[in-house]
UniProtKB/TrEMBL annotation:
InterPro entries per record: Cyt-d_ubiquinol_oxidase_su_1
Alphabetized UniProt keyword annotations: Cell membrane, Electron transport, Heme, Iron, Membrane, Metal-binding, Transmembrane, Transmembrane helix, Transport
Pfam families, per the entry: Cyt_bd_oxida_I (PF01654)
Membrane topology: Multi-pass membrane protein
Lineage: Bacteria, Bacillati, Actinomycetota, Actinomycetes, Streptosporangiales
Organism of origin: Microbispora corallina
Principal localisation: membrane
Cell compartments where the protein resides: Cell membrane
Family indicated by similarity: Belongs to the cytochrome ubiquinol oxidase subunit 1 family.
Name this protein carries in UniProt: Cytochrome ubiquinol oxidase subunit I
Transmembrane segments: 34-53, 73-93, 105-132, 144-168, 200-221, 233-252, 335-357, 369-391, 417-439
Amino acid sequence: MIGPLDGGAGVVGPLDPAGAVDLAAARMQMALSLGWHIIVACLGVGMPALLLFTEWRAVRTGDPGHMRLARRWAQAVGVVFAVGAVSGTILSFEMGLLWPGLMGVYGQVVGLPFALEGIAFFLEAIFLGIYLYAWDRLSPRAHLLSGVPVLVAGVASAFFIVTANAWMNQPRGFDLANGRITNVSPWRAMFNPATPPQTIHMIIAAFMVSGYVTASVYAVGLLRGRRDRHHRLGFLVPFTLAAALTPVQIVVGDYAARFLSTYQPTKLAAMEGVYRTGPYAPLTLGGVFVDDRMRYGVEIPSALSMLVGYRPSAVVQGLDRTPPGDRPPVTPVHLAFDTMVGIGFLLLLLAAWLALSWWRRRDLPRSPWFLRLAAASGVLAVLAVEAGWVVTELGRQPWVVYGRLRTSQAVNPAPGLWAGFVLLVVVYTVLTVSTVYVLRHMTRRWRVAPQEAAAA
């Protein structure tokens, strides 16, 4: 077994059965925590932008419809922030408890973004408290300005955390001397080559998830016949934001994938199921990777070489250049990537449908299928983000720090990690049920309030 600071690519010896079970349990804990937290984190980043826009419109025009939306969305933001704080705290403890081989060795290198994220989180909490509880105690302009730090701090939190993940994909900012870390440069570690594509891709995704999830709630209401101005505004504001960002995200995604061809070619090869290195590499849609080749998929000749190098003869590195023990699981990475890309283009078509209808009639499309797809867009956006993180994390395996530290070396050697996974399932089940109950109770109360006002 190579040492934890060995930069070589040797194959780690097999784990004993108990160790393999605990490693699997630790990975499942991290996957569950990250997969759950990323949803509320996206809402926490993007919803303040929707909230501030609607309040700005209300302050500027005096429109009570926008103000009603702003006040209701503010309550939802408060709930999302609360549950996000819980899941984020769980994640922070898991980093140390489950992966001491990572944090104990490399904590001094990658600790800066975690510290900065903590500062951003506290600033967000302070100003969110002011924003929520001083609504009627500040002037409209002052109250609107008090929400700006909430948006800025939320985006900053996402940026700092993603830079830490980017460092795991492109470790920089340290030297190895006699098996010890020296010349630590936390700023160089944080601003590594993977930081631009990953942070831009993730922050745009957060705004898209917030837009589509929020719009999907109102799309359901429109499908049920609630065609009042409140539901139209509640749909159009978030959906327009998400729709405008969708083509931008596709371009950024192409940039991020091309980045991998230079810096993580093994991950790109797994994403596309490419085994042999060479020119005229095909692009395969769907399929499974069996016996070093993609089967049952739809192959587009030379398309991958065109996307990577803008010419069919561009050479794409395949999995044959990577030792078998250093390859990620190809089929799940490939299918997750196809899922993310497929959903992205489906949402692009949905955005174009709205744009065409608005250009022609200044109205929503009349087909009920538009609203049906819009109602599903929130779930689809969440699935795309989850699939993207599967590609990012599973595509890096077996490394937790790419080329430096294996996941099996970073895990806590203490036995019984499976018990923690069972407990975590219980915790997140309770947290999910509680969150859904609170949000549904809030929406039912909002529907009853106008009826009571009309009766009075």
